[in-house]
Amino acid sequence: MQKTIKIIFKTSGLFFVFSGATYAGLCDDHQVVTNILKQVKITKVEQSLIDCKLDPVDDSVMMMAYAPWISVKDRPEEGQYSLDLIKFKPQNLKIVYHYPVAEPMVSDAISLDSITLDTANYKVTESNRALGLRLNYSGHSQPNPFSMQLLNLYDLKNKKQILDSLIVTRDRAETDMHCNADAEERASTLVIQKNQTKKYMDILVNSKIKRYQTQVIAEECQEVNQRFSQQHFTLKFDGNQYQIPKSFKDEYQY
Q1: In Å, how far are 26, 89, 146, 176 from 140, measured between CA atoms?
Q2: What is the C-alpha separation between 7 and 250, in angstroms, rounded?
Q3: Quick check: 169 and 186 in contact, CB under 8 A?
Q4: Is the pLDDT of residue 161 over 70?
Q5: Taking the complete model, does pTM exceed 0.90, yes or no?
């Protein structure tokens, strides 16, 4: 029988109890998040995006991506999201790593809805594993529905962003807001290569694309004229960041 481990700690006059070894939902607790952020002198907790995951290299540590909305003075609807990457010990909520990312995450007509830490093995050098962050955007035009997911990569050891806004999924359409539409879906996967450029591993991007139309057939809205294709290109490090080839840049970088 698997034993259940209870961990109890006290912070800011409150007791927290977590059972098991995964700490699922820890960062859903407002008091816990507030306590962690105060340690890095962040007091703004409202109107923010957040995600937490166990560190895949050290499961005694949790990683947090925290993105508060920074509005323009006197124009709260205008602004951008900043980003902090944090590591902390879930047993006592003590910070062990903090990286305030300099590059903002823009949210304009295409709104940034959520962020998700990507802990896949992005081993960009023999001794360095990058951390991924996926940014989920959506548009609000009914005639032209649109959504996409971006991937950023961060070199935590050197505290720098090494991949900026690669579009890894994108769904878009032109529609009459009933059934008739021209649509496209694209999904990409990344594969670390053995070849190196500027001492960083090359990254192969494989994309699958589906184009189709929707029409009313037998009183049902159905997909017709489906067409499938693929695209491939390689990200190479230029000494500062991974670069998308010029011929793909407009379609794959936001």
Answers
A1: 32, 39, 8, 15
A2: 50
A3: yes
A4: yes
A5: no
